[in-house]
Amino acid sequence: MQNRKIIFFDIDGTLYNSNKQVPAAAKDAVHQLKEQGHIVAIATGRGPFMYTKLREELGIETYISYNGQYIVFEREVIYSNPIDNQTLENLSAKAHGNNHPVAFCDEKDLRVSTKDHQHVKAGIGSLKLDFDVSEDQAYFKDNDIYQALLFCTAAEEEDYISHYDDVYFLRWHEFCTDVIPSGGSKAEGIKRLLDIMNINIKDAYAFGDGPNDVEMLDLIENSVAMGNAVEEAKAVSKYQTGHVDENGLYEGLKKTGLI
Fold it and tell me: InterPro entries annotated for this entry (predicted)?
């Protein structure tokens, strides 16, 4: 058997195809990796409660959620970095004044300020969650929030960017952008995890496709951009594979020699 490796997979557009399902070939590939003794991990912008069934289905116990703000190693939380409460208070007030809904995400739930807004329906709907989202404008007051979602257009987002120094905005949908603590990313989360696990970064692999994967793919030498990836992700990756809907993940693992 080759030396033990750790492989980080993004979820949407990487493990999940366009129908938010794991292709059979990808599922088989993950099981092959585990049978060979490798560590399979997730690095995603989603909260852990959004992919519980996926982790159970694939037997994954190590994961980086909320773009590096909530890290679990073998079911144990090893790092958490919530957004400052005053920042959330200010952001919520400003967004409310602009009729822009805000969602507050902790490790166990997602609550949105205005559930029936058309931008919320479009943004949250695209995630194809298997539960109903609840409405709560003050959820941040009594819970640690690791990531917020601001529902507005890219043009409207500009007005927010200049107001906050301790968070940054990362757009993933026409009507929605992530709000993340400054300095946080999947790449930083991977550094923390590898340090705790005492794994050399040269023994790490990463697969991704989105804007929030670029830093991770740039950090990891053995990086693979999906065929459906944004150009920025492809530009920093060592390998490029096929589209997620065309067994791209399986093909990418073959290219790297992992399976």
Answer: Cof (IPR000150), HAD-like_sf (IPR036412), HAD-SF_hydro_IIB (IPR006379), HAD_sf (IPR023214)
Please tell me whether residues 100 and 72 are part of one structural domain.
no
Q: Could you give the residue ranges of the DSSP H alpha helices within the chain?
A: 24-35, 52-58, 85-97, 118-127, 154-161, 186-197, 214-219, 231-236, 248-256
Residue 11 is encoded by which pair of tokens?
């979820």
Is 1 inside a domain boundary?
no
The range of the structural domain enclosing residue 152 comes to 85-181
- The answer for residues whose C-beta is within 8 angstroms of residue 65's C-beta and 6 or more apart is 42, 44, 46, 47, 48, 71, 72, 107, 146
Compute the C-alpha angle 247/209/38, nearest 5°.
65
Domain count, the chain: 2
The single residue of 10, 106, 136, 213 carrying the catalytic annotation is: 10
Residue 10 annotated among the catalytic residues of the structure: yes
How many Å apart are CA 109 and CA 94, to the nearest integer? Answer: 23
Model pTM score:
0.92
